[in-house]
Amino acid sequence: MKENQKPEVWLRGPIPHIPPLLQPVAHALKQAVEELAVFSDFFPADLLWEKPSGLASVGFHLQHLSGVLDRLFTYARSESLNENQLAYLKNEGSATLGDETYESLLFTFEKQVAASLKQLQSTPEATLTEVRYVGRAMVPSTQLGLLFHAAEHTQRHVGQLLVTARILLARQDQ
User: Which range is the signal sequence, renumbered to this chain (predicted)?
Assistant: First the structure.
């Protein structure tokens, strides 16, 4: 490990006020914010919507990360999606949402992570195995299943975003 590089979030100990069983979810979300910050000062706006070899764009991943956290945490509260959430979902992957820089999309994601962490703080562990329903089809899951999926789905898209961004930046340097 480099001298001024911190260990990964999960190796830094418990996050205050997060129930013990939800620490892995909180660690994964905080880790995602830190990993995405690597490009925050210099990712070129003209590459944000590029799709190298048909891969999803960096802009899509950033929008999707915010939207999917919002949706999954809504279902975890046993609520249905509202009109704004449905409109956001419909427009993910395009610049039509108005957030057209890496920094603004990252800021939106950071706000969503903060809201998600706040929800985790108020989630009683005794409710984690309660059934929750997903989508209009009302597919059954559990509160823990939704929260865990939110964490792993976030990490999956962060990894894809980082690879896509590096491909785009390498092409630009050639």
Answer: none
CA atoms 123, 126, 128, 133: torsion sign: negative
What pLDDT is recorded for position 105?
93
Say how far apart CA 154 and CA 105 lie, in whole Å.
15
pTM above 0.70, yes or no: yes
pLDDT band at 11 (very low <50, low <70, confident <90, very high): very high
Return the half-sphere exposure (C-beta side, CA atoms, 13 A cut-off) of residue 159.
Answer: 7
Write the CB contacts of 8 (distance below 8 Å, at least 6 apart in sequence): 27, 31
The per-residue pLDDT for range 40-49, each reduced to its tens digit, is 888 998 999 9
In order of their start, the domains of the chain are 18-40+47-173 (1.20.120.450)
Q: How far are the Cα atoms of 7, 57, 65 from residue 60, in angstroms, in the given order?
A: 28, 5, 8
